[in-house]
Amino acid sequence: MAVETLSPDWEFDRVDDGSQKIHAEVQLKNYGKFLEEYTSQLRRIEEALDDSIGDVWDFNLDPIALKLLPYEQSSLLELIKTENKVLNKVITVYAALCCETKKLKYEFKFKNEIHLLLLPFTATDASMVEGDCQIQMGRFISFLQELSCFVTRCYEVVMNVVHQLAALYISNKIAPKIIETTGVHFQTMYEHLGELLTVLLTLDEIIDNHITLKDHWTMYKRLLKSVHHNPSKFGIQEEKLKPFEKFLLKLEGQLLDGMIFQACIEQQFDSLNGGVSVSKNSTFAEEFAHSIRSIFANVEAKLGEPSEIDQRDKYVGICGLFVLHFQIFRTIDKKFYKSLLDICKKVPAITLTANIIWFPDNFLIQKIPAAAKLLDRKSLQAIKIHRDTFLQQKAQSLTKDVQSYYVFVSSWMMKMESILSKEQRMDKFAEDLTNRCNVFIQVGFLYAYSISTIIKTTMNLYMSMQKPMTKTSVKALCRLVELLKAIEHMFYRRSMVVADSVSHITQHLQHQALNSISVAKKRVISDKKYSEQRLDVLSALVLAENTLNGPSTKQRRLIVSLALSVGTQMKTFKDEELFPLQVVMKKLDLISELRERVQTQCDCCFLYWHRAVFPIYLDDVYENAVDAARLHYMFSALRDCVPAMMHARHLASYEILLDCYDKEIMEILNEHLLDKLCKEIEKDLRLSVHTHLKLDDRNPFKVGMKDLALFFSLNPIRFFNRFINIRAYVTHYLDKTFYNLTTVALHDWATYSEMRNLATQRYGLVMTEAHLPSQTLEQGLDVLEIMRNIHIFVSRYLYNLNNQIFIERTSNNKHLNTINIRHIANSIRTHGTGIMNTTVNFTYQFLKKKFYIFSQFMYDEHIKSRLIKDIRFFREIKDQNDHKYPFDRAEKFNRGIRKLGITPEGQSYLDQFRQLISQIGNAMGYVRMIRSGGLHCSSNAIRFVPDLEDIVNFEELVKEEGLAEETLKAARHLDSVLSDHTRNSAEGTEYFKMLVDVFAPEFRRPKNIHLRNFYIIVPPLTLNFVEHSISCKEKLNKKNKIGAAFTDDGFLNGIVFPLILCVAYILKLLDQYREFDSLHWFQSVREKYLKEIRAVAKQQNVQSTSQDEKLLQTMNLTQKRLDVYLQEFELLYFSLSSARIFFRADKTAAEENQEKKEKEEETKTSNGDLSDSTGSADPVVK
Question: Looking at the UniProt record for this protein, which Gene Ontology cellular component terms does it annotate, in alphabetical order (predicted)?
Fold first, then answer.
């Protein structure tokens, strides 16, 4: 029957009965799988967000935050509903004005104040470029415009509040009253007006203390004058300048002249068009004065006492209200004025915000000078003396205060833990809530307020009065900062339980208030004598009662406060009832905004202006390592200013300010804690390992002992976007130090290994093994060291082309250092093959500099003219001289160069040029040796592979066996290593070719045409080299071996290698091998010396008959000298011929290009053939 009720659309389902069930089961399985995965994912997130990462978490990074502050969704008109329409209007107007005041205060606190305070703190002064100040000020103008609008709005609200109050309290007996105001005191309105005046007063103080703002503003105005003279240069239309200048003058007059507060109180409060009269309203004047005195009476009782909560802020408002009252009504209560000044003895100064401190006496004397004249100078002077005395006393009592607060806060935290851990008993529920309320407010919040006040007042007073703080005071204040953050963290850590308790406490307090109001309401109803005033009272009580029946929002509490201002008249409440009701309402205010108030009091943003204390604090932490965990709280305090800094608008990006701050704090931390800790740990490990040497007295009873291991038990500290892990930092430092020192002196590897083990045992540091070769006899000079000092290396070492060895030129010791391929291979094995490319890159950079000097030499007029002259001479006489360059011409060139001048060491320009070429050749020899060393290292590593032609693929074998994923990764890595080694051992990187390709384009440019003369300078250069070489070798046999040498093939490379690399077109890139070969220089030299040798031999035969021994001896020496010169030139020729092989000297640049093109065409053809063969093979496969 059930089937018949189905709609016709589902008729077809009747056939397939089981499909729905199967489908549902599949979906359930999928859903179950999803839930399992989601659960595991949530668990991973929970573990990642666990508070074990750091003792103090960054509140701003909470993924989920619990907001206790209730949000009012009803409008004021909906909340204020009674049958008394007139009262409704009065309460609505006043409530709206109070809400507007709160909004303005909030806007100032979280927007305007921050921008103004942060303006001076750009990057460091050193990084400020000329013009930066003006640019920053330009960016800041838009904010000043917003601030101007804000101030104007504040003026309007103040005006409106005064008018609304004056309209209610009218002195004209004829005019009808809105409501009966006898006994009605809207104290809340005056408190809110005081808050708004405090905002304006704070603005004045910030700008007055802001030297940088004024300096930047002056510079900006000067810039504007420059723009005025030449607008087109700056791309600005002239007609727009004048309005802009007027706008700036308006901003300056309104904001920067320190007249914001004064302009507000000097407004024309009396309506000119017959509206509200204010200054002549005596009833309003009396009410105004009465309200100020009432607020002051409440404030004075608690100001400076342990139970003080927000009385200081209210006192600032009272001073503002008093000045406003004097400005409007021009009457002054001398007794009250003196009472206001007497408060300065209790409270010498008040911190308005951050680093801005306010002196009430200065304010009152400045704003009401007429009243100040009535007081004697001694009483005014006594206030200033008292301020100095207060600072001295505070400096002495700070240490005791810290100890007391330490005990208080610790016991409060224990109470919090015990109360919040217990389950609430239903039979004692109300009592339990009262206890919790007292612990939250009367203990926790009050401690936070007291500590915050001490820190801010003391620090700012020292800064304002420009007096130095003692280290003891700094340490004590930093301890108080830690306590402040500990209180905040306690509330945060137990926020879930606190949130639950707060809602219950709020309801309990509302219940108490409702009971009190209910009793008063019954009393009013029971009295049958109804009057308008009594009806107003009843309506006000009903309104308060209705409003309290709901969440404890700011708006509702405000309405209750205003309603009770009307409802408490006519002795509705007895004295013993009214005071408890006021206490309950005060508690309700505090508990409803508990978290926000705790955050405000525990906010340590002011530390940004007192960063100078941080180094002293870190020194103290280092000296007293026992309680190192307090670092977490200090970094949490330093982090408080970050949200404010993100609002900075005077820079291109707020990140510039954040980076600057981050860098500064990290530098201080490194300098005053981390680096000292690293050095101390290293020193301790060294002395412990070398105790047998008895280097120092290490008796802890004599020299004392610090347990630095406590630093390593700390959780990582969060700061900005990083975690500061002290353990990891010190471990890295020790690892790096031990590794570097082991590479310098490998024979000390056992000592550093022992120190590594000791660090693990004593401090629990997990050290990394160095994995350096522990035994080697042929390490030689390190590649890295040569690379860093290549300019020194090429000048101090000589290269042997045939043996591939570098030998030190001179040494103060009795031995010379040598560097060969094995040394380079060992060094590459230590650092890895990656060092080879880096080395070649360094050499390239070095060659660039040397080639520049080379080009300058060739471009010199004296050199160039001689070379061109020699080229012309050779072209003229080559046919007559059998195409050989004359030896005499080379000698003449050498002598001619010497005439140009010599250095104090006796070297000519050609000698210096030879040295330059030698250094370039040495650099090229070094590159060659790097390549050979790399091949040597690879071949040594690959020698354990049985057959290079048939290497087993380990990855495939592991897959076949079905081994674990880690084994597969290891096999893949092994295959990669074997492949690299095989390739490296079979073929090295052609570094010479790379350097040729890099330099070739530059040296072929027409602008380097002066280098084409190089081939003609080679003959005199070789002659110079041979003479120098023989001179060096002769010095080997002398006692004074300065300047002696026996191998200098670096020069030979200096001829050949610069052909391609140094002066790219020399003999190679510009096809100058053929030009040089056309000189037939070495044949000319050979013929010259053979001719002279034959002449000497012939002369010897003639003189042998004369028996003149001296003459024969001279001839023998001459023949020997000629033989040595000939031999040297022959060796030079052979070495040059072998060196030319590196650069394929048999081919010109054109031939090489042609060969390259042919190869590319062959490759394309072979690829085409392959694709054709594949295409033709397809049908066969099918």
Answer: endosome; WASH complex
CA distances from 1041 to 353, 528, 812, 1034, 1037 (A): 78, 130, 11, 9, 8
Tens of pLDDT, residues 412-460: 989 888 887 777 667 677 787 888 888 887 778 899 999 999 999 999 9
901: left (phi over 0), alpha (psi -120 to 50) or beta: left
Please state, in angstroms and rounded to a whole number, the distance separating the CA atoms of residues 353 and 632: 25
Please say whether the beta carbons of 1052 and 1139 come within 8 A: yes
Q: What is the dihedral of CA 156, 105, 149, 251, to 10 degrees?
A: 110
Q: What one-letter code names the amino acid at 769?
A: E
Strands 356-358 and 717-719: unpaired
The C-alpha torsion from 954 through 958 and 964 to 967, rounded to 10°, is -10
State residue 295's pLDDT score. 94
Q: What is the DSSP letter of 943?
A: T
* Torsional sign, CA 224, 225, 226, 232: positive
Provide the 10 A C-beta neighbour count for residue 339: 14
Handedness of CA 341, 347, 349, 353 (dihedral sign): negative
Q: Which residues pair with 797 in a beta bridge?
A: 808
Q: Residue type for 142, please? A: S
- The amino acid sitting at 1170 is L
Q: How does DSSP classify residue 351?
A: E
pLDDT of the residue at 1054 = 34
* pLDDT score recorded for residue 8: 43
In angstroms, the CA 465 to CA 461 distance is 6
pLDDT score for 890: 83
131: left (phi over 0), alpha (psi -120 to 50) or beta: left
Contact criterion met (CB below 8 Å) for 855 and 849: no
Residue ranges in the chain whose pLDDT is less than 50: 1-13, 51-54, 121-126, 1046-1066, 1069, 1169-1182
* Residue 819 DSSP SS3: strand
Residue-level length of the chain? 1182
CA dist 991 and 1000 (Å) reads 14
CB atoms within 10 A of CB 3: 9
DSSP 515-544: HHHHHHHHHHHH-----HHHHHHHHHHHHH
Phi then psi for 818, rounded to 5 degrees? -130, 155
Tokens for 774, please give them: 């522990």
For residue 1051, what pLDDT is reported? 44
Model confidence, pTM: 0.64
**pLDDT score of 133:** 84
DSSP code at position 988: -
688/996 Cα distance (integer angstroms): 56
Residue (of 615, 636, 766, 506) closest to 55 by Cα position: 636
Could you tell me the two tokens for 689? 């390992």
Read off the pLDDT of residues 867-876 as tens digits, 9 standing for 90 and up.
Answer: 888 888 888 8
DSSP 906: S
Helix (H) or strand (E) holding 835: helix 834-859
Q: How many CB atoms lie within 10 A of CB 630?
A: 21
Q: In whole angstroms, what is the distance from residue 382 CA to residue 392 CA? A: 15
Please report, for the chain, the start and end positions of each structural domain, with discontinuous segments joined by +.
606-763, 783-1153
Q: What is the SS3 assignment for 1081?
A: helix
Give the integer Cα–Cα distance in Å for 807 and 1045.
9
Query: Is residue 357 within a helix (H) or strand (E), and if so which, with residue range?
Result: strand 356-358
Residue found under tokens 């609430």: 424
Helix or strand or coil: residue 774?
Answer: coil
Residue 850 near residue 1045 (C-beta atoms within 8 A): no
Nearest Cα residue to 556 out of 78, 68, 79: 79
Residues whose CB is less than 8 angstroms from the CB of residue 730 and which lie 6 or more positions away in sequence, other chains included: 674, 677, 678, 681, 711, 712, 763, 765
Q: How far is CA 246 from the centre of its chain?
A: 41
Amino acid in position 190: Y
